[in-house]
Amino acid sequence: MKKTFLYPSHVSLGATMAPFGGFDMPIQYEGIIAEHFHTRESVTVFDTCHMGEFFVKGLKAAADLDGIVSCPVASMQIGQCRYGFICNEEGGVLDDQIVYRMSSGEFFMVVNAGTQDADFEWIKNHISPGTLLTNASLETGKIDLQGPSSPRIIEQLLAEPIWGLKYYRWMYNVYKGKRIIVSRTGYTGEIGFEIYLDERQTVQFWNDCLALGAKPAGLGARDTLRLEMGFPLYGHELEKSRNAAQSGFSRAISSDKTFIGSNLVLDPANAQELLCGIALDGRRTARSGDRIHAESGEPIGVVTSGSFSPCLERAIAMGYVAVPYSTVGRRVIVTAGRNQLRATVTATPFYQSATARRPISEFLT
Amino acid sequence: MAIVPSPADRKYTTTHEWVKVDAGLAVVGISYHAQKALGDITFVELPAIGKKVVKGESCSVIESVKAASDIYAPVSGDIAEANSVLEGKPEEINKDPYGSAWLFKIRNFNSADLAGLMDGAAYDTFAESEK
After folding, report:
1. Is the minimum CB–CB distance between A284 and chain B shorter than 8 Å?
2. pTM, entire model
3. Considering only CB atoms, which chain B residues are within 8 Å of A315?
4. Domain residue limits at A339
5. C-alpha distances in angstroms, A146 versus A168, A355, B73, B81?
6. Looking at the domain covering B11-129, what would its CATH class be?
7. What is the pLDDT of residue A337?
């Protein structure tokens, strides 16, 4: 199993480790709920070095990527980030990714750990001969700093001012004399940053964040935080055999261009089920694979993720529900083992007070 | 994981429950080791009063953020009391597994069922070996 550059740090912090995406990753340090609240209320650091990073460069890079990812690429400004899917010919999801425009002819793409090798091959096979694709994953460290106190830490660690950095924008910055990439993105819903730097600086950066008051958070809290926001997780909400349109992330899917799978993704006949938020009445959790039924008993869908929500103090889930039953407020029943759990189809985010989109200036005073 | 010696005043099962006889009832909870392994506990389903339980059979469920775990009756008998405070505050099991966060009490239990269970020291060795 692979290890990230921060593996020794996790061990010395006493983390509980488990495999994820081919890497031995920290699940929790102090505890999932404590790390969850620390992210919502203060600031945490996540080791996300397991994720994959590619550069795509060339005169046709924008046009090539427009043919591969579901979000519009050629219309992106330099400094912008966009979320989109990589689909197969059938419109199923091979991965979800964020693309960064570095210059008119250069893009940076961040993909999931477990899918990065297949993504690389897929992209390589679908770009023009003159477009250069490089895999920077091995020499790139990635750390997510998330939470309302994250701007204060970033401001102290980086040489260039970050007050102008808006949501879903990136900038070059300087850390201890070296150029790094920092974006206002993340997977928690809180204001925060994803930082890409030389692997040799990763441990130093991590330690600096801890010294300035950030607590380490593991994949356990990362999952409860993203679920409270209704963000999809590849392998759960998104998969090869599920048409991208069913995710309902219409802003990530351009309807005025052609990309691999687009004819099927854009055909409404392929969206018979829709990804929904599901709020359980109680604390007992539904888990991935649990079946969803209408009150009449009719089977109407399946749970893709479920957990206890620390902020809502009840169980929440996401799942695919047949369109006629997918309206907000619809009462449903989740069959979890021997138990029938009462639940309501709910708009996401479940957690309404997250800070990701608020102006950075509010957090720097 | 820090080793906290398990109290010597009770017996332990290989499924990580503890049982202690108090005022003629068999009081049941889960070990420090068990709550630590589960992580933050978010839900508990307690057995109904009067329910007959059988040694070694599942009679309760505890869920954490990470996992769900069955709780097995350490002795056979009838449920006399359940700690309903935990239904609203399951996190108490993480805080005080050997004290206020007992799960249920069994009456009319068979004392012979206690004989095969481990004492604190034997349980600590067992829990260590399971890591």
Report:
1. yes
2. 0.95
3. 42-43
4. 272-350
5. 14, 10, 43, 45
6. mainly beta
7. 85
